[in-house]
Automatic annotation (TrEMBL):
Leader peptide range in chain numbering: 1-22
PROSITE patterns reported for this sequence: ALADH_PNT_1 (PS00836), ALADH_PNT_2 (PS00837), PROKAR_LIPOPROTEIN (PS51257)
InterPro entries for the chain: Ala_DH/PNT_CS2, AlaDH/PNT_CS1, AlaDH/PNT_N, AlaDH/PNT_NAD(H)-bd, DHS-like_NAD/FAD-binding_dom, NAD(P)-bd_dom_sf, NADP_transhyd_a, NADP_transhyd_a_C
Any one GO cellular component localisation term in the record: mitochondrial inner membrane
Top-level taxonomy: Eukaryota, Metazoa, Chordata, Craniata, Vertebrata
GO biological process assignments: NADPH regeneration
Residues that span the membrane, as ranges: 528-546, 566-585, 591-608, 615-635, 641-660, 672-693, 709-729, 749-766, 827-848
Record keywords, A-Z: Acetylation, Membrane, Mitochondrion, Mitochondrion inner membrane, NAD, NADP, Signal, Transit peptide, Translocase, Transmembrane, Transmembrane helix
Family: In the N-terminal section; belongs to the AlaDH/PNT family. In the C-terminal section; belongs to the PNT beta subunit family.
Top-level taxon of the source organism: Eukaryota
Organism from which the protein derives: Takifugu rubripes (Japanese pufferfish)
Pfam family, one: AlaDh_PNT_C
Subunit architecture: Homodimer.
Protein name according to UniProt: NAD(P) transhydrogenase, mitochondrial
């Protein structure tokens, strides 16, 4: 059996392989036949019998092209390097790459030998594009045709038609702009206004979309027409205006082409084109019908109606043309309209065309033979759609000299489900689901009615005026907190959570209020109180120091100097003035609480932007210090008790400062979770201590029942916060498995715990005995702690940002409970602020994942948009690049976006990336970062990490700010991110992340994904972007890879 392998390529060279025992081509003149028309896409691959021919015994020959106007070459130096790495020997004819700007030296450096024509055609592998079917049949060869590569997902990397069409679309716009007498973009100058050019693109295939993107980037008004709805959506995504006719008819066809439309539809579209011809300046047509003449879409009369100076580019000219007046292969003018009918547009960009075609052919050669040692093609007559067997068999036009064209149809071809006729019941259900204006207004009115009725009920149930006052304070503080937190910039969400952690340490006020004895506590209640004050002080000192450290990282070298020590002046006046008033006999504690509460509001409001962020932290400190001072002033403790209070807070504060100084920014989520647990524990201790202290007065106090209820609720919320935060800490620290713990019947278990907690209130409220009360409080503490564990353990590591924000909210409501319990306005105000902050951040996180809060907290699966069908099967081959190739891409790109994920945090790769960005910015490149709201393990963590490394905050943008910029981006570097850039969220309605907002990195011109492996992210969903033709994988450790990139880029800049 002959083992001949020959490639006849797309207007470029093909490849011929021959083993040692195989006959070689003798007729070199036949090989040099030039009777082919442009872009004939054939590839002939001959093989020996199984088990194949060792790669090292095969030689690839690349001769010079001689077809008129053909400037491309089949294999680029990069392709040579790939083949040599695979094991092939490569010979290149001297000067073969010169028309494509590939000198012989580049081929030599890539591992090829430079020889004359005779040596090349004596090779085992020859790359050329002549008609050799007869000769190959005589040699019992196996022939593959590049234009028959099936257009399926797995074959995207081998699709030479798409590669060349992409170039043709771009070149069409360049040629049109060269022939057009005006700017593409509009301008307003002192000499007058220049309107933008109007461009109509017919056909939304690869060439049409490439043309749309190019014309749009040049500033033109672009309109796109296609019979397929998906193509119109792609036009829209590129900023073009999609044009449609009134007739509803789908144009989806087979093999990436549109189908032939009905007579009525064609008449409608011709009317549309006639109208557009009178308005637009440039028309680019790309419509083709496989195996037939291209349809006439622009008639002679339409061309005559166009304005003088207009330009038409007919990319279908080789197939007869879409424009009636086109002269194929020539540049002509008819009635003042320039016609560009060239049929060799890819050859007019020979370097780019050769590079892409070389990639197509080398990827196919490496993919069709899975054996790593021997070259062998397995041709099957029975195969499934979208598999590698489909690609091989679809491409084979001859096997061992036998003509096999066309290929048999594959099995399991996906068929679009026909539109389902809706039943009467379904139509009635849809009608019922539509909300009428009356019903919508009625629902809103009902909500307000319920709120007002609740307030009236609270007023009727109020035991005294103090309760009504504190409810008023709570309501107003909640509204203020709601509007304040929404104003915080997403980049400062981490400092926001840190500062709320600090001011939540005002649970110390509850502990101080219940402390007693002398230098030490004298009873259980006083012991619990001193513990609450101690652990709250840890939060206060540690929280404010961590916040200050984070905010200092956002400072830029160009920022003006700051004199924040001057804020000691208002702090001194606030505390010193209160001390003086106290000595004079004034009781102004409530005004102090109001002032402290307003300072805490200012702490959150200050984080609305970078300029006032450090002022916000200072105001938070003033508020906490003022609140503690007012509490001590109201208590008027003895010197011994004051010493006990001071010691507890001093030791706790010292511990907090020590922890904050040692903490690394990458461990910030763990620290926040740990601090949340302290708030929860302090709330539990304070509530139990308050019950112990107030119990003797319950018989005579009219507000006793209120006190008992609030103590019970505060204990319950604090218990969940305490244990849930510890589990979150364990998962984030790696002490516990980050995977969700799916206990059997966990929902029933949680429901039982909730029922037991609620049921415990019955004996607690009915039985006035001290023992029953403490037993119930102890029981609810244990039950809530267990519930906190079961709830949090069932949540995976990917959802930790939501867990942290929910726990942050819980800590606020626990603080509110203390405020109600102690009738303290300060605790109520601060608790409402923190509760609102955590709730809003939780909402933002859930929206960013397209999930409900209940879905996350209960360990749910999928998003609110996830369908019920089978998820999309992702097939294909990925493209790997090394550091040198990535550096070349970086050097060639002008507009670069970096999208980091948690992998960057884990690898601590922010420092080399920051240095790389600095070098690229100094080199004149536009470099920015795109941050997803749930990237990292807490809101805003990546912003803080980048700030720590010295990245200016004004180039770090949120997802909503940067998503629309990806189509115009030359290169996107994805570093350690997966789920947040997963296109399945938009492409697969059955994916568990369906509908989740993601960074649309795949719309960039080139994407490099830096990961350890091709593995899934936390959501356990395969990522289709890994297999897209514009994506390359740079696999390895993020830190080492980023260090290598930084070093290579620096070397390149030094050499320049």
């Amino acid at each position: 059996m002959a083992s001949l392998l020959r490639v006849v390529a797309v207007g470029c060279s093909g490849t011929l392989f021959s083993g040692a025992a195989c006959a070689k081509l003798q007729s070199n003149r036949a090989v040099r036949s030039s009777g082919l028309r442009f872009f004939r896409t054939h590839q002939a691959l001959g093989r020996c019998a199984s088990p194949g021919v060792p790669y090292k015994q095969l030689t690839v020959g690349v001769p010079k092209e001689i077809l008129q106007n053909e400037r491309r070459v089949a294999i680029s130096p990069a392709g040579v390097q790939a083949l040599v790495k695979q094991g092939f020997n490569v010979i290149v004819e001297s000067g073969a790459g010169e028309p494509s700007k590939f000198p012989d030296e580049h081929y030599s450096q890539a591992g090829a030998a430079i020889r004359d024509m005779k040596d090349v055609f004596g090779s085992d592998v020859v790359v050329k594009n002549p008609e050799l079917m007869d000769m190959l049949s005589q040699k019992k060869a196996t022939v593959l045709a590049m234009d028959q590569v099936p257009r399926v997902t797995i074959a995207q990397g081998y699709d030479a038609l798409s590669s060349m069409a992409n170039i043709a679309g771009y070149k069409a716009v360049v040629l049109a702009a060269n022939s057009f007498g005006r700017f593409f973009t509009g301008q307003i100058t002192a000499a007058g206004k220049v309107p933008p050019a109007k461009v109509l693109i017919i056909g939304g295939g690869v060439a049409g979309l490439a043309a749309a993107g190019s014309a749009r980037s040049m500033g033109a008004i672009v309109r796109g027409f296609d019979t397929r709805a998906a193509a119109l959506e792609q036009f829209k995504s590129l900023g073009a205006e999609p044009l449609e006719v009134d007739i509803r008819e789908s144009g989806e066809g087979q093999g990436g082409y549109a189908k032939v439309m009905s007579k009525e539809f064609i008449e409608a579209e011709m009317k549309l084109f006639a109208k557009q011809c009178q308005d637009v300046d440039i028309i680019i047509s790309t419509a083709l019908i496989p195996g037939k003449r291209a349809p006439i879409l622009i008639t002679k009369q339409m061309v005559e109606s166009m304005k003088d100076g207009s330009v038409v580019v007919d990319l279908a000219a080789e197939a007869g043309g879409n424009i009636e007046t086109t002269v194929p292969g020539e540049l002509s003018v008819y009635q003042g309209v320039t016609h560009i009918g060239y049929t060799d547009l890819p050859s007019r960009l020979p370097t780019q065309s050769s590079t892409l075609y070389s990639n197509n052919i080398t990827k196919l050669m490496r993919a069709i033979s899975p054996d790593k040692e021997n070259f062998f093609i397995d041709v099957k007559d029975v195969f499934d759609y979208g598999t590698m067997d489909h690609v091989v068999r679809g491409s084979v036009v001859m096997h061992n000299g036998k003509n096999l064209f066309p290929a048999p149809p594959p099995n399991n071809v996906p068929v679009a489900a026909p539109p389902k006729t809706k039943s009467v019941q379904e139509l009635e259900k849809e009608k019922a689901a539509q909300v009428s204006p009356f019903r919508a207004t009625f629902t809103t009115a009902g909500a307000y009615t319920g709120g007002i009725a609740t307030l009236l009920g609270l007023g009727l149930a109020a035991p005294n005026a103090a309760f009504t006052q504190i409810v008023t304070t709570f309501g107003l503080a909640g509204i203020v907190g709601y509007h304040t937190v929404w104003g915080v910039t997403p980049a400062l969400h981490s400092p926001l959570m840190s500062v709320t952690n600090a001011i939540s340490g005002l649970t110390a006020v509850g502990g101080l209020s219940l402390m007693g004895g002398g230098y030490s506590p004298t009873c259980t209640a006083e012991t619990l109180a001193v513990l609450a004050a101690f652990i709250s002080s840890v939060n206060i000192a540690g929280g404010f120091l961590v916040t200050q450290k984070m905010l200092d990282m956002f400072k830029r070298p160009t920022d003006p100097p700051e004199y924040n020590y001057l804020y000691l002046l208002p702090a001194g006046v606030f505390v010193g003035g209160y001390g003086a008033a106290l000595q004079a006999g004034y009781n102004i504690e409530q005004m102090m609480y109001l002032g402290s509460g307003l300072c805490c509001v200012g702490a959150l409001a200050g984080l609305s932007n970078q300029k006032t962020a450090r002022l916000g932290n200072a105001l938070g400190m003033i508020g906490v210090v003022g609140g503690v001072a007012a509490t001590l002033g109201a208590l008027k403790p003895s010197p011994e008790l004051l010493a006990q209070m001071s010691a507890a807070m001093a030791v706790g504060g010292t511990a907090g400062l020590t922890i904050a100084k040692r903490i690394q920014i990458t461990d910030l989520p763990q620290l926040v979770a740990a601090f949340h647990s302290l708030v929860g524990l302090a709330a539990v201790l304070t509530c139990v201590a308050e019950y112990m202290v107030e119990y003797p007065h319950f018989a005579t106090d009219p507000a006793a029942n209120l006190t008992k209820i609030v103590a019970y609720l505060g204990t319950y919320i604090g218990g969940i916060t305490f244990s849930g935060s510890l589990v979150a800490y364990g998962k984030l620290q790696g002490m516990l498995n980050s995977a969700p713990l799916m206990l059997p019947a966990r929902h029933a278990l949680n429901a039982s715990l909730m029922a037991a907690s609620v049921g415990g209130m019955i004996p607690y409220m009915l039985d006035p005995s001290y023992t029953t009360g403490l037993t119930c409080l102890g029981s609810v503490s244990a039950l809530s702690a267990v519930m906190g564990v079961t709830l949090t353990a069932a949540i995976g590591g990917a959802d930790m940002p939501v867990v942290i924000t929910v726990l942050n909210s819980y800590s606020g409501w626990a603080l509110c409970a203390e405020g109600f319990l102690l009738n303290n306005n300060l605790l109520t105000i601060v608790g409402a602020l923190i509760g609102s902050s955590g709730a809003i951040l939780s909402y933002i996180m859930c929206v960013a994942m397209n999930r409900s809060l209940a879905n996350v907290i209960l360990g749910g699966y999928g998003t609110s948009s996830t369908g019920t069908g089978k998820p999309m099967e992702i097939t294909g081959t990925h493209t790997e690049v090394n550091v040198d190739q990535t550096v070349d891409m970086i050097k060639e790109a002008q507009n670069i976006i970096i999208t980091p994920g948690y992998g960057l945090c884990a690898a601590k790769a922010q420092y080399p990336i920051a240095e790389l960005v600095k070098m690229l910015t100094e080199a004149g490149k536009d470099v920015r970062f795109g941050i997803h709201p749930v990237a990292g393990r807490m809101p805003g963590q990546l912003n803080v990490l980048l700030a720590e490394a010295g990245v200016p905050y004004d180039i770090v943008l949120e997802m909503e700010e940067i998503n629309e910029d990806f189509p115009e981006t030359d290169l996107t570097l994805v570093i350690g991110a997966n789920d947040t850039v997963n296109s399945a969220a938009q492409e697969d309605p059955n994916s568990i992340i369906a509908g989740m907002p993601v960074l649309e990195v795949w719309k960039s011109k080139q994407v490099v994904v830096m990961k350890r492996s091709l593995g899934v992210g936390y959501a356990a969903v395969d990522n289709p972007i890994f297999y897209k033709p514009n994506t390359a994988m740079l696999l390895g450790d993020a830190k080492k890879t980023c260090d290598a990139l930084q070093a290579r880029v620096r070397e390149g800049l030094v050499q320049q």
